[in-house]
Amino acid sequence: MNNQVRELRGEQGWSQADLAERLEVSRQTVNAIETGKYDPSLPLAFKIAKLFGRPIESIFEPGSDA
User: Fold this and answer.
1) Which overall architecture, per CATH, does domain 2-54 show?
2) Which 3-state string (H, E, C) describes 11-40?
């Protein structure tokens, strides 16, 4: 799954650790989501969308394997 998490985090000036704290996950989880190694659960994806004030579909897009 492709996502805009890294770009959105950068726009806020947050480190991966900052975002992880806001989402109540580990920094490693944030890194894995940003690099496409891990697709977040639906509740976590909604939490990310709410945090950035964006619709979920504007942040996450199916990858070429979907």
Assistant:
1) Orthogonal Bundle (1.10)
2) HHCCCHHHHHHHHCCCHHHHHHHHCCCCCC
Buried b (16+ CB within 10 A) or exposed e, 20-29: beebebeeeb
60: phi then psi, degrees, rounded to nearest 5: -115, 135
The structure tokens listed for 5 are 């998490």
Residue boundaries of the structural domains of the chain: 2-54
- Rounded to whole angstroms, how far apart are CA atoms 27 and 57? 23
- Residue 64 is predicted with a pLDDT of 66
Average pLDDT value for residue range 38-62:
96
Whether the CA torsion 4, 7, 12, 13 is positive or negative: it is positive
25 has pLDDT over 60? yes
